[in-house]
């Protein structure tokens, strides 16, 4: 079968196509000549000459329907198809001329067009697509037309002038404006880059007029033909934003998580809602903090915290301890009765993913050292590393926004309605927590996860509901999460720092505590016992009333330390409030000490003056008594001086009673001799001073 095959003459290099095969007779045509016509050759002669079979030099092109190429093809095919009905006659010169002459009578095409299309049909594969024009060779694709003197493209019909051609120099100015200005920031519009390019053009060509400036159409065409959109977006967008929001997603979060508990994700946000105080609904207390812990495999919310603590290790600890423990008690505290099967997630996971925040510091070491949990932190500004938890914040808040007041609006509420949206707040913290618990339970038990990536071994009748995915994973993948004591987990998750031990008690952050175990050990005795100088203290920053002392490195060991009477002032406070009071007390003490240091030299100067005057007086007065007489008279001199002091300091009434005569004095014991015993208080100096007589 030699029809439509191409052969090459080894001696001349010419290529021929077989356009007819009848038994051993062949008709060939030179595929490279623009004047070739079919000529006869036998098969034996073809073999004897040694023509080599080669690949087709004109592979059949593909053409898009409705394109200009398809229209030209259909036009040529409609012209020569009547000739192809007499195919064998076309291979004979006289018959071919006769058929073409007859065709010219019924068509407006010239003879040259018919012969060219007929020759093209034979040379290029004898199919309708062989008549497609070689438009792919037009336009010098990929090579810009810079060596021009006149502007290419459409001519101006409204704007005056003829414009300026985009030469290599102008293209360089365009490139400078795009690379140095437009691609540097996504805030720069293309029009501003064009203005920058025009400014560069005017600086290089000062004599240029308004009619010879590059236009926006030229600038845009240059941009679209020389810059790929994907490259522009990558260059203009900051790397962390591109990686987070615009990069290609080639996998899923569940691909590398084998089952429930393989990885938890934890994150916090400030709720889009204002709350009021529980005791006084007229008081607005601000927006609460939400912490959620989610399981990546099942998408279940395994733990949560709703409160007023800022995002910190304390709030994260409460959320994690909630994730590790049974939720029935937690829900019962808010009046919600559930069974373990309604919220079955409790136990220790294999790993936890968090952002570069509260789990990045030493407090998180307890998760690794005591709970054997692998910690990993997301990259900076890469919330997509834990997108399961990040996306849930908007999901859960969208459920209550339409129903409650005090929701944060995207615009200033005062400008929008004349009233601040904070004033619409109606829920207190307990009510808001109860509402979120109900929404989380509905999410865990009813919500269908859109686009969940099922593994090949997961059954087709398994719905993408978090609780169903969790239960299936527990039964078929991971078995069961590791359990732990809730109190031990909570205490060991508390932050810890060093405290000191002295005879007054255990001092931590300036506050003194006592401990029954430490008393039994004799740590506070004033006989300098063998007590440790520093101890490790775990504490809840929200309350100063109780801290926990770690006597050793065991997970189960801790002593409960209560607030000492010395520090009763700080009862019921947070450590932040206590630190504020301590700081204020230290400031007051420092101020008083500063005043003391300032006034003390004046007082000492007065003392020195008094002493100096006394010494001068002693030197000027010569004693009339001997030293022995002076020593013997101390007691008598003291009694005399005491009477002088009493007269000087006694209470003297300014009122005097006026009588005409003195009152009669009647003695009680007229027959007895009056005693000389004094009724004064005993003189303690007589007992204290030495007997000098």
TrEMBL record:
Origin species: Marinobacter metalliresistant
Q: Where is the composition biased (Acidic residues)?
A: 680-693
Please name the InterPro entries in this protein's record: Integrase_cat-core (IPR001584), RNaseH-like_sf (IPR012337), RNaseH_sf (IPR036397), Transposase-like_Mu_C (IPR015378)
**Protein name stated in the entry:** Mu transposase C-terminal domain-containing protein
Q: SUPFAM superfamilies from the xrefs?
A: Ribonuclease H-like
Q: Which PROSITE patterns match?
A: INTEGRASE
Composition skew (Basic residues), residue ranges:
649-659
Q: Where is the composition biased (Basic and acidic residues)?
A: 627-648
- Indicate the segments forming the Integrase catalytic domain, all copies: 256-467
The family database entries (Gene3D superfamilies) matched by this protein are listed as:
Ribonuclease H-like superfamily/Ribonuclease H
Annotated stretches, region: Disordered: 614-693
Q: Which Pfam families match?
A: Mu-transpos_C
């Amino acid at each position: 079968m030699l029809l439509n095959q191409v052969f090459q003459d080894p001696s001349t290099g010419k290529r021929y196509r077989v356009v007819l095969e009848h038994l051993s007779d062949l008709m060939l045509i030179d595929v490279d000549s623009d004047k070739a016509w079919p000529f006869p050759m036998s098969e034996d002669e073809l073999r004897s000459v040694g023509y080599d079979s080669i690949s087709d030099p004109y592979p059949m092109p593909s053409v898009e329907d409705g394109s200009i190429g398809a229209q030209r093809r259909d036009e040529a095919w409609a012209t020569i198809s009547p000739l192809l009905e007499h195919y064998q006659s076309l291979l004979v010169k006289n018959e071919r001329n006769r058929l073409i002459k007859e065709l010219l009578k019924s068509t407006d095409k010239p003879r040259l067009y018919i012969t060219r299309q007929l020759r093209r049909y034979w040379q290029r594969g004898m199919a309708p697509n062989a008549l497609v024009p070689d438009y792919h060779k037009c336009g010098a694709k990929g090579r810009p037309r810079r060596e021009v003197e006149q502007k290419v493209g459409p001519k101006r019909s409204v704007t005056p002038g003829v414009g300026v051609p985009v030469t290599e120099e102008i293209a360089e100015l365009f490139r400078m404006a795009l690379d140095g200005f437009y691609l540097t920031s996504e805030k720069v519009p293309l029009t501003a880059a064009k203005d920058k390019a025009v400014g560069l053009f005017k600086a290089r060509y000062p004599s240029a007029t308004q009619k010879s400036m590059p236009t926006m159409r030229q600038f845009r065409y240059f941009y679209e033909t020389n810059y790929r959109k994907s490259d522009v977006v990558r260059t203009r967008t900051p790397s962390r934003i591109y990686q987070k929001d615009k990069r290609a997603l080639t996998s899923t979060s569940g691909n590398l998580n084998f089952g429930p508990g393989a990885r938890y994700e934890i994150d916090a946000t400030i709720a889009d809602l204002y709350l009021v105080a529980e005791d006084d609904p007229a008081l607005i207390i601000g927006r609460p903090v939400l912490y959620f812990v989610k399981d990546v495999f099942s998408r279940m919310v395994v733990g949560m915290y709703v409160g007023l603590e800022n995002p910190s290790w304390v709030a994260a600890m409460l959320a994690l301890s909630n994730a590790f423990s049974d939720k029935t008690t937690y829900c019962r505290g808010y009046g919600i009765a559930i069974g373990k099967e309604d919220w079955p997630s409790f136990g220790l996971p294999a790993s936890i993913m968090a952002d570069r925040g509260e789990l990045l510091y030493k407090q998180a070491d307890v998760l690794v050292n005591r709970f054997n949990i692998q910690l990993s932190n997301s990259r900076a500004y890469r919330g997509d590393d834990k997108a399961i938890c990040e996306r849930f914040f908007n999901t859960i808040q969208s459920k209550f926004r339409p129903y409650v007041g005090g929701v944060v609006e995207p615009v200033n509420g005062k400008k929008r309605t004349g009233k601040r949206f904070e004033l619409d707040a109606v829920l207190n913290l307990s009510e808001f927590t109860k509402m979120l618990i109900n929404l989380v339970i509905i999410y865990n038990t009813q919500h269908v996860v859109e686009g969940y990536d099922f593994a090949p071994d997961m059954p087709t009748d398994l719905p993408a509901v978090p609780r169903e995915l969790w239960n299936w994973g527990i039964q078929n993948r991971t078995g069961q999460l590791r359990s732990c004591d809730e109190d031990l987990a909570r205490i060991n998750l508390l932050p810890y720092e060093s405290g000191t031990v002295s005879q007054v008690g255990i001092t931590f952050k300036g506050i003194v505590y006592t401990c029954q175990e430490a008393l039994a050990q004799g740590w506070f005795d004033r006989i300098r016992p063998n007590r440790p100088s520093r101890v490790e203290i775990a504490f809840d920053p929200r309350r100063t009333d109780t801290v926990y002392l770690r006597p050793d490195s065991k997970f189960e060991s801790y002593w409960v330390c209560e607030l000492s009477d010395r520090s009763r002032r700080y009862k019921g406070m947070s450590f932040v409030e206590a630190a504020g009071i301590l700081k204020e007390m230290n400031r007051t003490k420092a101020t008083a000490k500063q005043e003391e240091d300032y006034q003390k030299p004046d007082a000492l100067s007065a003392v020195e003056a008094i002493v100096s005057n006394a010494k001068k007086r002693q030197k000027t007065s010569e004693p009339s008594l001997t030293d022995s007489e002076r020593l013997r008279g101390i007691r008598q001199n003291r009694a005399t001086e005491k009477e002088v002091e009493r007269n000087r300091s006694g209470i003297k009434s300014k009122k005097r009673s006026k009588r005409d005569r003195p009152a009669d004095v009647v003695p009680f014991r007229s027959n007895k001799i009056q005693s000389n015993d004094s009724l004064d208080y005993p003189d303690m100096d007589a007992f204290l001073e030495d007997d000098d007589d």
